[in-house]
Batch of 2 targets.
Target 1
Amino acid sequence: MQVCKFVAPEIIFGAGTLSQVGKAARRLGASRVLVVTDPGVIAAGWLEHMLPYVEDEHLDYAVWSTVTPNPKDYEVEAGAAYYQRHGCDALIALGGGSCIDAAKGIAILSTNGGRIHAYEGIDKIKRPLPPMVMVPTTGGSGADVSQFAIITDTTRRIKMTLICKSLIPDISITDPLLLTTKNAYLTASIGMDALTHAIEAYVSLAATFLTDVQALRSIQLISAHLQASVDSMENLAAKDAMARGSLHAGLAFSNAILGATHAISHQIGGMLDSCHGELNAVLLTYVMEFNLRTCPTRYASIAEAMNINISGMTALEAGQCAIVAIRRLARNIGLHARLADFGVTEEMIPILSATAMYDACMATNPREATCEEIAALIRTAL
Ligand SMILES: [Fe+2]
């Protein structure tokens, strides 16, 4: 009998639920909140929209908005100093995965001290974190429900994966209306990131019956609605479906962990500061080909969830159909197809493959890989 556990934050989902943010922070005992956001979110008007809900609850706040995509170690440390300087006792992140991960990094340093690098890996955070309310604006990272934080080590030029239950936010507020200001490129790349989360979680060595149901529902929703969500900023039905798909994927991967796609894309993202979701969109199908023979029936179920008619096919054939369909989807929504498009070169492969072997996500990839095999996989995707 399988023994498993499943962790998740309190989740508030629905159009207009941004209005709950002040009440959520108040319920957690906050009195002075650090709001972590970024210039894109501010330009879209969402910070201005949110702050009255914080003020309604008579909460003091400070705003820190100098986060960049792929949040850096020095940014997190600057944010933590800002948090201390302003006497904050709780965090609200309003933004994509970068804002949410940066907020988690600030939370770690605010109660545990030291440098963020000390918390790389699994269960390195010893002291409890301050209350965290996360409001995702991009629909895809899953960081608002996950026990992960991904921070770039700018000295080693790699992404550090921090995994600990205390990184699960207290409250996650998903308001699909926030997805209506994202452009087509962001919608496409983040949507493919969410699909990658669901697929890697479904074939993960740590998958359970509790994560499978989340992963398969996510694959259904994203494969059915991503194209429509990319085609129109105002399609609320598609935004709602993508927000739900992303939430399901986040719950799946937070508990089942990920696989080789993320282990490799973290290294390329750390080295070249490239778009995480678009990198995954390229790598995912090559990793699926690498894994396919290890767990073909799992990939056949993925094909079925994508609404592919697999009757009469072997599991291998069905899995291959899923790979072809994902490549077609990525192309149709305008994403790159090769790693060379991001500036990856043959000379970078030895270091990328060597560092990928140490990424925490590699441990749950269904097929054990050698460094040479990962190098060959990257070369195939160049
Ligand atoms: Fe991801």
Target 2
Amino acid sequence: MPAIADPGPIAAQPLTLDGITHSYGAGLAVDNVTLEVKGGELVALLGPSGCGKTTLLRIVAGFIEQTNGKVIIGDRPIDDKPPNRRDIGIVFQNYALFPHMTVADNIAYGLAARGESRALQRDRVAEMLDLVQMSGFGDRKPKQLSGGQQQRVALARALAVRPRILLLDEPFAALDKNLRLDMQIEIKRLQRQFALTAIMVTHDQDEAMSIADRIAVMNRGRIEQLGSPVAVYDAPETLFVNNFIGSSNLLDGMVEAAGNGECQVRLASGAVWVVAGARGFAAGQPVTVSVRPEQLELNDAAAADRIPVALKLSLPIGGDLIHDVTGPGGETLKVTAPRRPGTAFGQTGRFHCGLSRHARPALFARSQS
Ligand SMILES: Nc1ncnc2c1ncn2[C@@H]1O[C@H](COP(=O)(O)OP(=O)(O)OP(=O)(O)O)[C@@H](O)[C@H]1O
Ligand SMILES: [Mg+2]
């Protein structure tokens, strides 16, 4: 008789949040959030402090009962199930390991709580330690580990019960940059290997951009935009999303002509820019133009579509130079350009700042004040 085989990872399941609303007493923390995370997909929840990210995750995990709405895994609502019956692995924000237990016991915790046999626990712990590249650490106590190692154990503990869904709440907040990068790669690898459907909370936009299949940008309890990292970065739908993701220069202007999905905008400095892909604007309308630093360039010659600027400071940021320039109205602009090895960056002087060739500025209506 063959032994009963370990079923292994089961097919990835979609996770649907259907109209989730939550109030803590009078305070509305989550406001009618609907989100479908596809099977095997990783969605990053990105947003400022207090916008409802942790509340939403705790609702999915079953630690908070939502005021309204449904949580569905596959095609089954799970709202009547307690947290330990939801098949969800969770790595909490600021959630330490059990300090008095060894690493191995921490990892086995969920299995023990389910009454799994000691043999299975032992095998699974060994497998998980191997998975997070920490074999040999099983007998240590959490305080004998570095921050990154503790995070890996927390991840191993979350994965040990073979969850269908993985929830991560700022799992790398306490780690330094290099370790964060290692952990991001690690999470991505494990998430793929186990075909996990995952939501990761972060307020680090670079982290969200690099790790997520899609990003949901939250503001005041609502999802303000949901899309691929590139779509959210290149085509922000609101000024909030624009300002939250990446850095950008905001310039006030007035629409001079609009039509054919294109707007001619006269900036306060007098320069006229053509903004492609801008619909729903009318001549005479006050607007804010948002342009990323890498979409601007400095030129020597004046032109109708260039702003005369004074260059005050250039700083090397990794492989780029970031120029800090001031326009005629005192407005400051940031312009980045690839740094050629050996270029001096102490240069100052007068330049003309315009859109680089493939620049796609974003346009937002501005209320007249
Ligand atoms: N137990 C609670 N009782 C009352 N209000 C709460 C409670 N927990 C959170 N809140 C409030 O609900 C809102 C959302 O909080 P939440 O913890 O979900 O935010 P967050 O997006 O995770 O923020 P952060 O990035 O700081 O972790 C906040 O205004 C917060 O003050
Ligand atoms: Mg939080």
